[in-house]
Design brief:
- The protein contains 16 helices and 10 strands.
- It has about 400 residues and is of the alpha+beta class.
Length: about 400
């Protein structure tokens, strides 16, 4: 599990807070185009899943059968503020089924709209279940239960058919298979799934693309014939793919042909990236050996102990396990989709690795010479420069 720093907030030039998170961007075909942090992180999307929870409300025919408006559908997908226009719509909606707010499983809640809350207290009124920000979603579920003849008193329980349909619709949208979902209970008493960040990205992208046409067919009047949508042209190769750099550390960018298994592709690209960093390390320690040898012989001394290159081969593996995929992005190369990963070993880990190499060599290295070697070790140089130095 890893988060990326997405935002730093400064007050008067002083860092006040740091906000971390995970970002995943998917296209309507289900391909991951960009990510920051761990796309395989498990989390609860909660209210951001409401539009997918509303799918069965449309697919079942419940929306059409009640003669509802697009405003009702929007309310079903929303976390509302309980303004009068919201609660009046909830009451009207429930009235069409001879139900009331008391039939909703969510509890009473104070309006989020401050003016509405103040006016209620002035009139001596108490909040009802219609004021709950999730009451629209609950109306969608209970409407589906009424339309399909299921028990309306248990519509919010996991075993009710209207809730079981949610996992099926998530899979339909490119989400996890029904048997692979961890379920908990949301604040409004409905079952809520924990899914991977990348799964939510795919479902959201598909909802915004082809699924929006499906919704128009299910919730609208006539069946539209959508024109074929052209995918945007693939972007140029990102700079970090062409020139992977981390100041004071090691970096490598590797791309592998994309398959249907992002986890496998990422592991393969990461392994190749670590192998490339290991190769870079071998070249840099060769340069260190030459620099150290020149200093010692110039001073009239003799070189003893193990070479830095030999020691690096012994100790580098354990330190390279601390490297990570800091950037992951799908990139089109020669017309084919590739998963590109930038693997980095951060400056702190690189310094520890350097110290382990120098200490493991058992060479008598003065603090001044060690500092010179470290500056050489951490300096970014193009491969051509390193090759020239090792050839000297």
């Amino acid at each position: 599990m890893s988060y990326e720093t997405l935002c730093r907030v400064y007050r008067g030039g002083i860092l006040e807070s740091v906000h971390q998170g995970t970002v995943v961007v998917a296209d309507t075909e289900g391909n991951i185009r960009f990510s920051l942090g761990d796309p395989h992180m498990l989390y609860f999307p909660r209210s951001s899943l409401k539009m997918i929870q509303a799918l069965e409300f449309c697919r079942s025919g419940a929306y059409r059968s009640l003669g509802l408006s697009p405003q009702h559908l929007a309310l079903c997908c929303a976390s509302h503020d309980a303004e009068p226009l919201h609660t009046d719509m909830i009451k009207d909606w429930l009235g069409k089924m001879n139900l009331s707010a008391d039939n909703l499983a969510c509890g009473p809640a104070q309006p989020n709209h401050e003016r509405t809350k103040l006016d209620m207290y002035k009139r001596g009124e108490q909040p009802t279940r219609a004021h709950h920000e999730c009451s629209g979603k609950h109306c969608g579920f209970i409407s589906t239960a009424v339309h399909q003849g299921h028990d309306t008193a248990t519509y919010h329980l996991p075993e009710n058919p209207v809730q079981r349909k949610l996992s099926e619709n998530m899979a339909l949208m490119g989400g996890p298979a029904p048997g692979r979902i961890f379920w908990a209970v949301d604040g409004c008493r409905l079952p809520t799934p924990a899914i991977l960040t990348e799964e939510m990205a795919v479902m959201t992208a598909k909802f915004a693309g082809t699924i929006s046409v499906f919704l128009l067919v299910s919730c609208g009047g006539s069946d539209p014939k959508p024109e074929k949508q052209e995918m945007p042209k693939p972007p140029m190769l990102p700079d970090w793919v062409l020139n992977p750099v981390i100041e004071g550390g090691f970096a490598s960018a590797e791309c592998v042909p994309a398959t249907n298994d992002m986890s496998l592709d990422r592991s393969q690209a990461t392994a190749q990236g670590r192998a490339e960093i290991s190769r870079q390390l071998g070249v840099k320690t060769k340069v260190m050996d030459k620099t150290y040898q020149n200093k010692v012989t110039t001073a009239g001394g003799s070189v003893t102990g193990n070479t830095f290159e030999a020691v690096s081969k012994q100790v580098s593996e354990q330190y390279l396990q601390g490297s990570r995929a800091s950037k992951v992005e799908y990139v089109t190369i020669n017309g084919k989709n590739n998963l590109c990963v930038m693997v980095t070993l951060d400056p702190a880990s690189s310094k520890k690795l350097f110290d382990a190499i120098v200490d493991g060599s058992n060479r008598q290295v003065s603090p001044q010479d060690k500092d010179v070697l470290y500056q050489e070790f951490k300096a970014f140089k193009a491969q051509e420069e390193l090759d020239q130095e090792t050839a000297k």
